[in-house]
Design brief:
- Strand 1 and strand 2 form a beta hairpin.
- This protein has 21 helices and 16 strands.
- The longest helix has 46 residues, at 2-47.
- The relative contact order is 0.06.
- It has 574 residues and is of the alpha+beta class.
C-alpha cells in the first residue's frame, strides 16, 4: 500500500512538472506571436491599406521595394494571397483578398493599428464582418510596432566614411523615420528621443532622425528584441561593428591595412543595394539581355546539380523539383515569383516544385541550351517533345563567361573553415561534390584543386569531391563569384573570403593574444561558424595524415619482410 501511494505521488509530481513546462512554452510562443502581430500592424500602418469594395469584399494591400520580396513572402506563407510586381515601378505588391485570410489578419492586427487613416479603414471592415473593433494602448519602447513601421518608412544611412591623419574614421551614421503627416513620430520621439524636423526637399514631409552613438546603440538593443524583417536588418546588425572598427584602428599602424578595413566595411554596408540595383534592375536592352543570360545559365547549373525533371501519367506535361537547404528559401522565392510553383519544407531541407504548364514552358525556354549533365539533357528532351519546343545542344566546354558554375555551386557546393593539423590554425576550404567526376575534372582544369573519393557518411550520395585549399585557387574562384554571384545563403561566406586572408596577415602583426581571440571571434560570428562544418571535410585531413605516416613506415616494413625470408631459406637448407 505504501509503495502504491508513493507511485501515485510521483505520477502527480510528474504531471505538475509537465503542466509547468507547457505553460512556459506557451508563454514564449504567445510573446513571439504578439511581437509578430505588432510588427505586422506597424508595417500596414506604414506601407499598407485596407479597402472594402462595392461588392462587399475586403482587401489588404502592402506595397514595398523590390528587394523586400522576402518580407512579403513571410506574410504570404501565413495568410495566403498574391505577390506581384507593380508595372512601371521598382516595387512589389502583396494582396490578401480571401475571406479566411482577411479574418486571420484582422484577428492579428486588431488592437495594434495606430495611424488614424488605417483605424478608419479597419473599423469599417470590422463592422462589415460583425467583429468588435479594439483601440490600441499607448506606444512604448517594449512594442514591436516601431520595428514594423521602420521596415515600411525608415532608413539607415552611412555618410562620409573617410580615413584622416591615419588615426580615426570620420563618419556620420543616421537612422531616420519619415512620414508625410506627423501622426506617430511624436510618440516614437517620447520612447527614444531624436530630432524632429520638416524636410522641405521632400515636399514638406516630417523626419525623425538619430545621430548620437548612444541613441543608435539603444535602437540596436531594441531591434535585438523586436527584429526588423526587411533588408534593412543587414545594416542594423553592422551598427556596433562600425564603432568597434573605430577603436581597433587605433592599435594598427599600417596605413594600407587601415584603408583595407575601411573599404571592406563600406562594401559590406552597401552590398545589398549595389548588387540588387546593378544586377537585377537594369535600364537598357543590352543590360537586360545580359542579366537574362546570367539568370538562365545560373538556373541551368542549379537544375544540373540538385534538380529533377519527371514525366508520368499524373503529370502529363512534366514536373520539376529542386531541393536545397532550409536557409536558401530566398533563392526559391525568386524562382517562384518568375515561374510560379510551390515551396515547402521537407525532412532534408526545402523543396521547390513546378507542374503548371505555362510556368514549365517559360522555364524550359530559359534553360534550353544551358544544361550540361547528360541525364538532365535527356529528361529535358522528353519534356520539350511534350511541349513542342526545339531542344538546343549546349557547348561541350564549360566557360567562365556565364553563371552555370555559380548555380552548380549553389546546388552541391560548400564553403567551410576547417581546423588544420597545426594548433590554433584554421584553413579555408571550398568544395564541389558530385556522383561522377565528369564535371569535376573540367572544373579542376579551370581552377585547380584536388579530387578525392568521399568516405564519410555525411557526403551521402555524392561519391567524388573537388577540394580547393590553396589561396591562389580560392581567390580565382572569388574573382569568378564577383562577376557571377551566388544566389544562395553561401554568398554571405563567399563575400568574406578576402577579409579572411586579410585577417591572417593582420594576425601576424598582432602580439596580444586577447586581441587575437576577440578579432577571430568577431570574424567567426560574421561567418556564422559551426563546428559541424568541420566534420564535413575533416575526413580528408585525416586521410592526408594517414598517407604521410604510411609513406614513412613502408621502408622498415619491407626490410623486416626481406630479413624474415632469408631466415626461412637458411633454416630450410640446414
Amino acid at each position: 500500500m505504501k509503495e502504491m501511494k508513493e507511485l501515485e505521488r510521483e505520477i502527480e509530481q510528474r504531471k505538475e512538472l509537465r503542466i509547468l513546462k507547457n505553460l512556459k512554452k506557451n508563454k514564449k510562443t504567445n510573446k513571439q506571436l504578439l511581437n509578430w502581430n505588432e510588427w505586422l500592424a506597424g508595417l500596414i500602418d506604414g506601407a499598407g491599406s485596407f479597402t472594402l469594395n462595392k461588392a462587399g469584399y475586403a482587401n489588404l494591400e502592402i506595397v514595398m521595394e523590390l528587394r523586400e520580396v522576402d518580407c512579403l513572402a513571410e506574410i504570404k506563407q501565413r495568410f495566403g494571397g498574391t505577390i506581384k510586381t507593380r508595372a512601371g515601378l521598382k516595387a512589389v505588391r502583396y494582396r490578401a483578398h480571401s475571406l479566411v485570410g482577411i479574418c486571420q489578419i484582422i484577428a492579428c492586427v486588431n488592437g495594434h493599428i495606430r495611424i488614424p487613416r488605417r483605424q478608419i479603414q479597419l473599423e469599417k471592415i470590422c463592422k462589415h464582418y460583425n467583429i468588435t473593433y479594439k483601440y490600441p494602448t499607448k506606444l512604448t519602447s517594449e512594442n514591436g510596432w516601431i520595428s514594423g513601421f521602420f521596415d515600411a518608412t525608415g532608413t539607415i544611412q552611412l555618410k562620409g566614411l573617410i580615413l584622416r591623419e591615419n588615426r580615426y574614421i570620420d563618419y556620420q551614421l543616421m537612422l531616420i523615420f519619415k512620414e508625410k503627416v506627423n501622426t506617430m513620430l511624436n510618440e516614437i520621439q517620447e520612447c527614444f528621443g531624436g530630432n524632429l524636423k520638416i524636410d522641405q526637399s521632400s515636399g514638406g514631409s516630417f523626419t525623425l532622425s538619430y545621430k548620437s552613438q548612444q541613441q543608435l546603440l539603444d535602437f540596436y538593443d531594441y531591434f535585438k528584441k523586436y527584429p526588423a524583417r526587411s533588408s534593412k536588418k543587414h545594416n542594423i546588425l553592422l551598427i556596433p561593428q562600425l564603432y568597434d572598427i573605430q577603436n581597433e584602428l587605433n592599435y594598427i599602424k599600417n596605413v594600407e591595412l587601415k584603408q583595407k578595413i575601411c573599404n571592406q566595411f563600406i562594401s559590406k554596408w552597401y552590398f545589398s543595394d549595389k548588387e540588387f540595383y546593378e544586377n537585377e534592375i537594369s535600364d537598357g536592352q543590352e543590360r537586360k539581355e545580359q542579366n537574362q543570360f546570367r539568370w538562365n545559365s545560373w538556373l541551368a547549373g542549379l537544375l544540373d546539380s540538385c534538380g529533377n525533371i519527371m514525366l508520368s501519367k499524373t503529370y502529363v506535361y512534366g514536373k520539376i523539383e529542386i531541393k536545397l537547404q532550409r536557409q536558401d528559401h530566398e533563392c526559391f522565392e525568386n524562382i517562384k515569383i518568375k515561374y510560379g510553383g510551390s515551396v515547402k519544407v521537407c525532412r532534408t531541407g526545402i523543396r521547390y516544385r513546378l507542374k503548371h504548364q505555362e510556368g514549365l514552358k517559360n522555364l524550359l525556354e530559359d534553360i534550353n541550351g544551358h544544361l550540361r549533365i547528360p541525364v538532365r539533357i535527356y529528361q529535358v528532351q522528353e519534356l520539350c517533345k511534350k511541349n513542342n519546343i526545339e531542344l538546343k545542344q549546349p557547348d561541350n566546354t564549360i566557360r567562365l563567361d556565364n553563371a552555370w558554375i555559380s548555380g552548380f555551386f549553389d546546388g552541391i557546393g560548400s564553403i567551410v573553415i576547417n581546423q588544420t593539423t597545426l594548433e590554433n590554425k584554421k584553413q579555408l576550404v571550398i568544395i564541389f561534390n558530385q556522383k561522377t567526376n565528369q564535371i569535376l575534372l573540367t572544373l579542376q582544369q579551370l581552377f585547380g584543386g584536388k579530387i578525392y573519393i568521399n568516405t564519410n557518411k555525411q557526403s551521402g550520395m555524392y561519391k567524388y569531391a573537388l577540394y580547393f585549399t590553396k589561396k591562389e585557387e580560392i581567390l580565382q574562384l572569388y574573382a569568378y563569384f564577383k562577376k557571377f554571384p551566388s544566389r544562395s545563403d553561401k554568398n554571405k561566406r563567399i563575400l568574406l573570403i578576402a577579409q579572411y586572408y586579410d585577417m591572417q596577415t593582420l594576425m601576424l602583426s598582432i602580439t596580444d593574444n586577447q586581441l587575437h581571440e576577440t578579432l577571430w571571434k568577431k570574424f567567426l560570428c560574421q561567418w556564422d561558424y559551426k563546428a559541424i562544418d568541420e566534420i564535413h571535410s575533416g575526413e580528408i585531413l585525416k586521410q592526408k595524415a594517414k598517407l604521410k605516416k604510411t609513406k614513412v613506415k613502408k621502408a622498415p616494413q619491407l626490410l623486416e619482410k626481406d630479413c624474415n625470408k632469408d631466415r626461412v631459406q637458411k633454416a630450410s637448407r640446414s
